[in-house]
Design brief:
single chain; 436 residues; alpha/beta; Cytidine Deaminase, domain 2; Dihydrofolate Reductase, subunit A; 2 domains; 9-stranded mixed sheet; 5-stranded mixed sheet
């Protein structure tokens, strides 16, 4: 590959462009495309909201006749198959571009290498792998769902100077300052879904939405691990469920379908994997790369094939701050009230993340932010299903009754590489990532 400094500059711009619609392109990746002629950008686009049109035809249409003989910079290999839209490789050929520069080769078996072959067969020069590490990072959600059949998982923790993430019994405790909190809002805005445990949902009563002016519509789906359905009907999550989707992940034991399995312990309940009509219910395919289902053995590096023990304090019937429904009638009433408020209830053991994550992927969720609390963080860490750690460290002291962080900068799990440090006011953010 013959790469010039200009090539790197234009690809970096395409990658920045691609990030504009992260979390907003359904199951399609958010791809950036620049059309450049004689050193000038004559067309540019990012995958449209909802996933269509793709970036390439939009950028080509903007360039028009200027695309002939130009160079296209694309963050992901152009698609080569007919779906609900024609192949992007065909569009590049039809417009007469002379060269295509690609950051990341598409792992979708219907595309991988075929888009490049189509372009080369048409006499177009193709260079692939430019700024690949940066490109893969911008496409992390899509690549993880394609190759591991689960969302890309980011764990975000804000830790005080004395190693705490909160104070017991006091709800939300501000640890980081306004600059760091604004950065977290930006992260939420580019993420498909955000997840917390029932203890955090009850004690903090969070909204889990994006509150940055102008980005409110980019709030992620909100997911709560709530095995016994104890989330209060008066919680902010329930009260806003019709504005921003809320999913409660409940135990199969409280499912209306559990009557036939009454008396069996959870470990031997039949069909523990998600079933059609529950969390894994089918969605209308709307992706340029509708992937076929894969074995949960491919869930992720380090994933445990064994059930994960429920965190102490979040066992069904012992959820912090919650009241377990007294009997079947009470449970049915609570379920009906939650659903009437717009909450979706799905039945997939909350403490089997190696099953839950692929089920979320079937619903088009490519990126997941785990934001609380300590027990839920440990659950995903111990399962080996965290891909990126965002560790904020603040100078505040929590002191007595502090809730200890599940990790700090001195005990990052093996397999993670430190990828950068940023300062937001007095708060320090360190990021760690597994190799995709």
């Amino acid at each position: 590959m013959s790469v010039t400094p200009d090539d790197e500059s234009f690809m970096a711009a395409a990658i920045r462009l691609s990030r504009r619609h992260l979390g907003r392109t359904a199951t399609n990746p958010s791809v950036g495309c620049l059309i450049v002629k004689d050193g000038v950008i004559v067309g540019q686009a990012v995958t449209a909201l909802g996933g269509r049109p793709h970036a390439e035809p939009q950028a080509l249409a903007e360039a028009g006749e200027a695309a002939r003989g130009a160079t296209a910079y694309v963050t992901l290999e152009p698609c080569s198959h007919h779906g609900k839209t024609p192949p992007c490789a065909e569009a590049l050929i039809a417009y007469g571009v002379a060269r295509v520069v690609i950051s990341v080769t598409d792992p979708d078996p219907r595309v991988s290498g075929r888009g490049i072959s189509m372009l080369r067969d048409a006499g177009i020069e193709v260079d692939a792998g430019l700024l690949e590490a940066e490109g893969r990072r911008s496409l992390a959600g899509y690549l993880t769902r394609q190759t591991k059949n689960r969302p890309y998982v980011t764990l975000k923790l804000a830790v005080s100077a004395d190693g705490m993430i909160g104070r017991a019994g006091e709800g939300q405790v501000a640890i980081t300052g306004s600059e760091a909190r604004a950065e977290v809002q930006a992260l939420r805005a580019e993420t498909d879904a955000i997840l917390v445990g029932i203890g955090t949902a009850i004690s903090d009563d969070p909204l889990l939405t994006v509150r940055t002016p102008g980005l409110e519509a980019q709030s992620p789906i909100r997911i709560v691990l709530d095995p016994a359905l104890v989330l209060p009907l008066t919680s902010k999550l329930v009260e806003t469920a019709r504005d921003v989707p809320v999913i409660l992940v409940a135990s199969e034991e409280v499912s209306p379908l559990a009557a036939d399995a009454e008396g069996l312990p959870p470990s031997v309940l039949p069909d523990i994997s998600p079933t059609r009509g529950e969390i894994g219910k089918e969605r209308e395919p709307n992706s340029q790369n509708d992937s076929s289902s894969r074995s949960t053995a491919d869930v992720g590096q380090g994933a445990s094939p064994q059930p994960i023990s429920p965190p102490v304090g979040e066992m069904p019937g012992r959820a912090e701050g919650g009241n377990t429904p007294a009997d079947a009638t009470d449970l049915d009433s609570r379920r009906a009230a939650l659903e009437a408020a717009g909450v979706e209830i799905v039945y997939c053991n909350p403490y089997h993340p190696e099953i839950l994550l692929p089920a979320l992927a079937t619903r088009g969720i490519s990126s997941l932010l785990v934001e609380g609390g300590a027990k839920t963080a440990r659950l995903f860490l111990e399962a080996g299903l965290v891909d990126r750690i965002q560790l904020y460290q603040a100078p505040v002291i929590i002191g007595v009754n502090g809730i200890e962080s599940p990790l700090d900068a001195t005990d990052i799990p093996s397999g993670f590489a430190h990828t950068g440090t940023q300062m937001f006011g007095v708060d320090r953010l360190d990021e760690y990532e597994r190799r995709l």
